[in-house]
Amino acid sequence: MASDGNLSLNDPPAVIDEEMLRKAVDEQGPKERAGEMAREEGGVDFADVTSLRLDYRNILAIDNLWCFKKVVHLQMSNNVIQKIQGLDILECLTHLDLSFNNIEKIEGLGRLTKLEDLSLFNNQITVLENLDSSKNLRLLSVGNNKLTDIRGILYLRSFKSLQSICLAGNPFCKDLEMYKMFVYAFLPRLVFLDYVMVDPELKQKGLNKFDLDLMQVEEDDRVKQETVTADDVFARNLAYNTAAFVENLDGGQLFDAMYAKDVEGRKFNTYKDIEDDYELYRAKFIECCRSIYEAGVAKHKDKQKELEDFYASANDAQLVSQMKSRAKVVEFLEYKTKFWSELVDCADKNEIQKTMIGYNARLNELFDLLLGYELTVVDQLEEIVTELIRSAEDLHSVLTEYTGGRFARLRELENQHHEMVLVTAGFMADRAAKHEEEEGIDLDLQALIADKVTMIGIINASHDLHLLVIDMRQDELSKSIHRWHEKLSDDLHETMEILRNRERVVEIYHFIDYHREDGDDMVSDLLAAKTKHVSIFLEDDFLQET
User: Fold this and answer.
1) Model-level pTM greater than 0.70?
2) Is it the case that residue 10 has pLDDT exceeding 60?
3) How many CB atoms neighbour CB 364 within 10 A?
4) Could you tell me which of 88, 53, 55, 51 has the C-alpha nearest to residue 73?
């Protein structure tokens, strides 16, 4: 567990909740009159916060930061965090401090493309990894971890902006001079190592010592870069097309797949009387595949737009609900402050108790309002979810119907070509049976037409194989649509569970209970004080009379 002067090993782990966040924002927000004005207006809006400190709070898990979309500086050092998570929404983040925690793996930073300064000092990390999206890193601190293989720093060679790195305190630093020479040689852009400027003499010694290894690494980098560039383009296109259910339908891939294992079928297409028809068949087949591809991509764009609109609506609805809730809470707290000041002046016990009835009624009213806001959001979004699922069903019904017609066209083209091959090959076999010589027939094809019955069997088997490939691709497209629709339903229902926000409901209950109990305690103290005051007054009278 991270150790510091403020946390005890016996302290229970803390949860990031509304109270903790509000306290942190108020502590770090404007002071004096500006701070008073901000509090009078309901406090600083989380959505406007650009810097947030949550250090020394015994936090176990990173959560509930989704409101802080503009935050650029986040400090969560000296906690007990075990896993990097819950940061995806913070896409503006440039500085992140997670030092002095219990993190074992670098992960969960894939969306933080603007990150420039990352501190993971004093954790349990064993491998440098999963920083590929953070190519703008200028400062990286991973000292005092469990990095044992110094060659692991080669992963950082692709980070062109990296100028400062802290690695001190890791097991591979035992031979200090060798460690520095290695880092200087293989990370030549560094300006600072362990917060000290690079030593030019030691850097030159490192370049000399590791010159052969460095040449090999540079060559590997060059080859890898060329491969990665081509592979990235291919992978991005494939991923997008797969999401649209039309992978490998944007060209001749399906056509080639039909003939991939049909060695004997390909031989018939080389015959001069079949070759022209084959080329025409191929062109029409690919054109039909392209029409399927374009329809899939168009529908994919439609469904992406609908999903984006849904999540935008969900965020807007939550934001409106939070603003309303925050305004009501501020209004109640102002009422409470004024209420207590007036209650202290009450002389009669019955009047105090009667006044408390109004206070509790105000609390009940606030509870109904806050809970009502939460339920209203859920009701609104449930309607949107229902409409979104229905729309997705319609969209994919249209796509399934259209692609079904296109696949039927592919089978029609295959049938036409099959009939043409069958007739032409029959003439070839008849001429061969009459020993009529014909130019342009290679030996392999002559062997195939030597026996007409066998030849017809081969051509029919080829045809069946082609139809099977077409059927399988159509079946895969239909299954992909079905899987996506099921996943969409599951994801949306999961989203609704999140939006129902049971934790938020619990917070409302706790808030109301706290202020109800606080009211009871204040009244008890007030009544006790007044009773004591009366008792002392009577005692003074008694002493005077005596």
Assistant:
1) no
2) no
3) 12
4) 51
